[in-house]
Specification:
5-stranded mixed beta sheet, D-Maltodextrin-Binding Protein, domain 2, about 20% strand, Arc Repressor Mutant, subunit A, alpha/beta, elongated
Length: about 325
């Protein structure tokens, strides 16, 4: 091949040679490609002559790539990969819902997001969904850096102004989801389920289930009643969401402080919820997002759905608790 000559190796020839290299045999490749063996052999010779190289060494058991052949195959694979990408440029992109959510540890967050997907997305819709259960500060950073489109942060109500200022300084938006005090969850046949009022002495007779991560322990009393002192004599620390349900179901007398929980979940596990006068701190869940996220219709719709879900859950929970007092 002389200087200035133009190569005429086609994409199809590259594909055929790659197949021969993969199969290790022209005979086997002919079956895969539905081509006559003689035609493939002629094609290989034409390419070798065109480039002035030897691609394959012929052996009794098939063919083996030469050093030049290995270089050819590597280059051909790269060319074919780039051509495939070029072909995709003019095609209409396939709709894929790619979203990240950073939420506090609360069952209703998972239930609400699941309900939104059930109501909004077709079962065949391609979805890339990343759910992070984390604390308020990490959720803010994940939303800020774009790792998550929406976040739900939980804080004592007296921190609301501080966090609103913090969010505003970072260019994040927020809206209220719900305000609540912590309540108790236990088996529906728990001895405390029928008490007219639950005292600290009552709680200390039974086994408390708590989240075992250090941050939750540091915040637990601040979210219930900072004046409560002492540690229950029976306490089990869990580090997995599923463990808490198993323990509440299987340990007679076990209970746990929780935020509002979907009532169908409470009922399906044979549990009951109880208000307790010891819980005096008002807590707040805030929905947070970056301003530009509201330009995405699916994010706007998801945010609206979460607000409606939280409002209904709060109302349903209040009615259930009021019904226990009558």
């Amino acid at each position: 091949m002389g200087k200035g000559d133009v190569l005429t190796v086609t994409l199809q020839q590259m594909k055929n040679i790659l197949t021969i290299a993969q199969e290790g045999s022209i005979t086997k490749a002919s079956r895969v490609l539905f081509r006559a063996q003689s035609n493939l052999s002629s094609m290989v010779r034409e390419v070798e002559e065109e480039l002035g190289i030897t691609i394959f060494d012929r052996t009794p058991s098939g063919v083996k790539l030469t050093l030049q052949g290995e270089q050819f195959v590597a280059c051909a694979a790269d060319v074919l990969d780039k051509m495939e990408k070029l072909e995709q440029i003019g095609k209409k992109p396939e709709e894929i819902y790619s979203m990240g959510f950073s939420v506090c540890r609360a069952s209703y967050c998972v239930y609400a997001l699941s309900e939104w997907m059930n109501h909004t997305l077709d079962a065949a819709t391609k979805l890339s969904f990343h759910l992070h259960e984390t604390n308020a500060d990490e959720a803010i950073e994940q939303v800020l850096c774009g790792e998550s489109a929406l976040g739900i942060i939980r804080l004592p109500l007296f921190y609301e102004n501080y966090y609103r200022q913090k969010l505003d300084q970072k260019g994040l938006c927020c809206s209220r989801l719900m305000e609540f005090t912590m309540m108790l969850i236990m088996r529906d046949n728990h001895p405390m389920s029928l008490l007219p009022a639950i005292s600290q002495e009552d709680l200390y007779r039974y086994t408390e289930i708590v989240h075992g991560d250090q941050q939750s322990l540091a915040l637990s009393m601040a979210r219930i009643n900072p004046l409560l002192h002492g540690t229950p004599p029976r306490r089990i620390y869990v580090y997995d969401r599923g463990s808490q349900i198993d323990l509440l179901q299987r340990l007679p007398g076990a209970y746990m402080w929780v935020s509002p929980i979907p009532l169908d979940m409470v009922d399906s596990y044979g549990m009951c919820i109880r208000s307790c006068s010891l819980s005096t701190v008002a807590n707040l869940d805030l929905l947070i997002w970056r301003r530009e996220m509201m330009e995405r219709p699916e994010i706007l719709d998801c945010g609206d759905f979460l607000r409606r879900y939280a409002a209904k859950l709060q109302a349903d929970t209040a009615r259930r608790l009021e019904g226990q007092c009558t």
